## 1
Amino acid sequence: MTREELATASDLLESAADDTANDDAGERLGELAGQLERLSTADRGPDHGRLARIQSALNDLQSNDGTDVAETIDDADDAINEYRSDLEGV
């Protein structure tokens, strides 16, 4: 089962990683995209805590980059929020 929202967030972060001029941010965005890709197809979905940590990292990266990349990161964050809206718990 694919979790479409997480797959979409992963694709968006890959795009942001390619578009950023900051090598460190690009590497980190690529790592986060990979995590979301794995989570999108894992047997068991991620919990709120795991996704919150990813979103916190995105928030840090978003504040340190240009507008186009920041918008893409924001779109990925929205996709994660959409997935989280259906999760039980917190």
## 2
Amino acid sequence: MHVTIKDVAKLAGVSPSTVSRVIADNPKISDATKKNVYKAMDELNYHPNAIARSLANKSTKILGLILPSTEEDIFKNPFFIQVMTGVSHYAQKNGYYILYTYATSEDEELEHLKKLMFSRWVDGIILTTIRKDDKCIQYLKENQYPFVVVGKPESTDGILWVDNDNFHAMYTVVNQLIQKGHRKIGFIGGPHVLNVTMNRLDGYLRAIENSGIQVDEKLIMRKEFTEEGGYEAMKHILAYDHPSAIVTTDDLIAFGALKALREEEIDDISVIGFNNTPLAAYQHPTLSSVDINAEKLGSFAARLLIKHLEKKDDGINSYIIDTKLVERESSEKKK
């Protein structure tokens, strides 16, 4: 059955003209009405592709960047600052500007995305987080709206994306630790719904298994990408055992793990971070960390999207950005 704007209006209990104004993000329409109309559109699987295409043809020279946190929390994680810097530098060189928005959940991210899509504010969207069965990617694809993703989607068909080889990066780190004599290595990652966590966990598991070491599930913890999450996970692991090394999927997690070790006065556990944020060199002890070139990730994401918007596609839909382990004091410990 072909769903029309009248069907949406009937389900939402508003007039068709109100639905049109919601799609155009008319400021005179209340947030409650907009939410109600968006809900009706979702229930009826209504996608105003014609409107989306007409809006896309009216260039604003602005890119929408969606960040997965509150405005306050974003500035606690240097990764997003570095990505934003890379995006901004490339965009401005090419005559584009950035509109930032923040979301604390996937549903809120989808709501913001819809507002950007059906407004005249942006020409395309940059997503900085990918989840399993990601709703935002699905919605953007269904509506044929220009976007790029920082991270590798589960299905890359028809999607612009830029990422590191997270599997290989973590595999290399764990393998190096094993070669140094470590046999009991723990893992602290972010939420399991995030693709980056699963890719790095897969690299950890493969390195452990290929070395003939038994995987201990109790040494594997997944928390939020925060210092508090790393602290809690490290405390939990220490209550169970005393590993010789811990690999993490983010420097903030590693900072929390180091804090827990300092409290327990433990100095014989190596900790490895990811992102090589500036504060890694100022930890006590200093933190070894994988440099993922976050600013370059942002720059190449903007590059892919702008080339697509300007119809200068050259057949390249993705970029893999190199990583490098920056070794400092903590990785030199031996079991």
## 3
Amino acid sequence: MTTSYLRKATKADLPAILEIIDAAKAYLKEQGINQWQAGYPTNQDIEKDIEQKISYVLMVDGEIAATAALWPDRDVNYDDMLEGSWRGNPEDTYMSIHRIAMSSKFRGQRLSEKMMSGLFTISSELGYNELRIDTHPKNKGMQKVIANNGFEYRGIIDFNDENEVDTTRFAYQLYLN
């Protein structure tokens, strides 16, 4: 039987997380998706997530299978939508899921559902009932993961990031009951 759980990432996890991120960048490139192709996320981004205690890893039988950052409060990238709108009060706080990636060794095992479930639980425990996430318009795999985990498509945002080639993203929202 497989044992899996979500925990906060530590500095000791950094090499494994960076390996997963690098493999995810290569996987996106293979699919012709220019998300994460200009350096982002950097090693420093991941290190900062760990230092700020917002980086999480999905452990499967003692190995790191996936990683994600769970940002509390408000994300300036979600302030202005090019198309669509958010549900709820614009002043509400929420958690944002960023830099989510699955190890190629564990891809296709439906572990993203466990990862998301863990992130939902942590959000709830921290007092947040709203989550937001975004992905590249061509990233059909991530769009499927997002939809299969109950998120609702809300519109299009644009990241103001000079390190990304294409900054248009589909934005999604979920309210926990």
## 4
Amino acid sequence: MSNYTKTYHALGTEINLTVFQEGQVPALDKAYELIQYCEDVLTVNRTESEIMSINHAAGSHAVSVSEISYDLVKEAVEVSQENHGFNAAIGPLVKLWHIGFSDAEVPSDHEISHTLRLTNPRRIMLNDKEKSVFLLDEGMELDLGGIAKGYIADAIKRLWAGEGVNQGIIDLGGNVLLVGESLHSSGLWKVGVQSPFDFRSDYLGMLKIHSNSIVTSGIYERFLNKNGHSYHHIMDPKTGYPVKTDLLGVTVVSPRSIDGEIWSSLGFYNDYEGTLRLLHDDSIGLIFVYKDRTVRITDNLKDRFTLTDSSFKMK
């Protein structure tokens, strides 16, 4: 069986979509149209979008939005209000540091403490009937960059199901969602887990899994070097500074891609032991990669993950 892949550019990255039947190729462009629509309504990197409408109205009034925006905001807010590290209201802090952009600077302690007051997710009011969102304090901002790709990948999978696509690969710039069984006789997919010390084509290990999402978050791709210090882009909503951690990367295997996004963030905030205390879902597995080249994995991945780079050691 052949594979049919198209490459697109959206969400600030290269996107590769694959199906395995020629008659299903039109589903690739339909998925891209969905991606473009989702980006239009969810982005905070433009002056206008549904999420930006919510942000612009902060402290003033509630804003009703589409079902796509509301569903994503609601899930992000509910996870944020559990206060385990993931925070959809972190927008003002991300903008203050702006790591990954040319104008990135280390803020003062005063700027950080002032900005932290605008990142309380319990100051977000949701109205299911009106599908409206109200940020109660002026200056608050939603930032769904840490969760939107996962939501969009899951939406593509649902779209494809309606188009009769039961086998394919959704790759949203490193956020991968595998649909159906692979072409191997076992039906398992083989997926490389990126080495945080090398280029994207180099792997530290290999996963053999059924239809699942694979999401990796790392501190090695966006950072700010200033006055002899290096600051990565994963912010701690409790301190206002980048998360203090010995981790370099967290990879999550999960049925839903949005859960991969959430748990990869929670992994950084809570490390291995703390994440295990929060995790009560056997369908979600995690791989933790540390600066000293040690690797820790959850028990449910021990038969599915093989370390292939001898410079790393299992802990």
